């Protein structure tokens, strides 16, 4: 039996055929959010993903060399990154390693390297009623400097008690995250299926999270130039985008930037909420 | 002899400060006002830049000349320009 999934990313439209119901379901789940982007006019790009008898996953992209993976999760993860990046590259979108939420109607980016707390802040804000844009990559349209939702696989906290204890003044013990493709018990895209922003969002603030267990929670302003320098370091494929400096410059000049040093999630989120109010 | 840029440098002014982004080295440089003055005249001969610096900032010719030479040397060290300033 052959299963089909279609999805749209930016201006690209894909049609996948597979012999595996598991792969089909994972693709459906993974790309659900991308259907919210502008429907493409072009005909879909077909490719096949088939599971062989020995369990290997073989991907046959159109007019490209086939690839083979050892597990469904590995295949889906790499496929997702490849497709998403290639599609957004075509649109010249700027991808910043950043969480992004809409909190009290304000769009806030949390740019940062792994372990700085961007996923923690993003998920914390969501649990307090914010809307999800991304916990991994903020997508910026270069001409308007608007942020778009990037509802890819969410990072999952290894310790969910962190979030259950949001009201208990819980200190951050394990800020690091792991990519989590098994949907069984994580804060997964399922939880956010209904809330990704369907419209581009005008950015209202940039908050650089800085997890520091030994420091108090503080929200301090960052100059536009410092902000620009930090953002540049966190931008994907920055050397290939001639519009990059103009777009990021436009953002840092028009919205405030802060560094949020944090050792306490609840306090940190309250700082963000106070700012957003 | 005018100085030449080694490659495409992307520039943008942020709050009155000039920021240079060098994609080939993936490096960001923020210029102080004097360096910015020199950068904006980078295609002129160093002597001409020094002359303009002297009149704009009312500094002595010697100081202007040394400032320009130092800044061009720094630009060269950073790989932003190709031709060393003539002695």
Through-space gap between termini of chain A: 53 Å
Taken as a percent bin, the fraction of beta residues of chain B is 15-25%
Give, in spatial order, the strands making up the sheet with the most strands of chain B.
1-2-3
Average of pLDDT of chain B: 86
- The count of domains of chain A is 2
- Approximately what portion of the residues of chain A adopt beta-strand conformation? 25-35%
The total number of structural domains of chain B is: 1
Shape of chain B: globular
Structural class by sheet pairing and helices of chain A: alpha+beta
The CATH top-level class label of the largest domain in chain A: Alpha Beta
How far is the N terminus from the C terminus of chain B?
Answer: 10 Å
As a percent range, the share of helical residues of chain A equals 25-40%
Extract low-pLDDT stretches of chain B: none
List the secondary-structure elements of chain B in sequence, H or E: EEEHHH
Biggest sheet overview of chain A: 5 strands, mixed
Count of individual helical segments of chain B: 3
Using DSSP, what is the number of strands of chain B?
3
**Which class of secondary structure composition applies to the elements of chain B?**
alpha+beta
Describe the SSE topology.
The complex is a heterodimer of chains A (277) and B (87).
Chain A: E1 3-9, E2 12-18, H1 21-30, E3 45-51, E4 57-61, E5 67-69, H2 72-90, E6 94-103, E7 106-111, H3 118-127, E8 131-134, E9 137-140, E10 146-148, E11 155-157, H4 161-164, E12 177-179, H5 189-192, E13 201-211, E14 218-222, H6 224-233, H7 244-254, E15 257-262, H8 265-276
Parallel strand pairs in A: 2-3, 7-13, 13-15
Antiparallel strand pairs in A: 1-2, 3-4, 4-5, 6-7, 6-8, 6-9, 9-10, 10-13, 11-12, 14-15
Chain B: E1 10-14, E2 17-22, E3 27-30, H1 33-39, H2 46-57, H3 61-77
Antiparallel strand pairs in B: 1-2, 2-3
